[in-house]
């Protein structure tokens, strides 16, 4: 039995396949763009849009945002949000493999907890 750690769209992108974006993804991208346009950021909209989507849909939103606006979604969120809230939004809107790599990188910087985080991440792998 194979364990699917990453959304199917992540594999499609890796293999260079054309990605189909459902209407739900385009609508979410427009809502995110609108929430960050102009002065201030509509954080409630960001929570509603990103928090209600599956990892597969969030992956597609991230891909589509970059395709439409020539800017990674995580870069937009970094400039529009801050603190733990901003970090969480960036993590859930970044492809899972990239997020896991960043977590491992952060965990292994400096002294202390790094080894425990590495072991926890390795236990997830088949």
Automatic annotation (TrEMBL):
Cited Pfam families: Annexin (PF00191)
Key words of the record: Annexin, Repeat
SUPFAM superfamilies: Annexin
Highest taxon, organism lineage: Eukaryota
InterPro entries associated with the record: Annexin, Annexin_repeat, Annexin_sf
Repeat found in the keyword field: yes
One example GO MF annotation: phosphatidylserine binding
Gene3D superfamilies tied to this protein: Annexin
Full protein name: Annexin repeat
Organism encoding this protein: Phytophthora cactorum
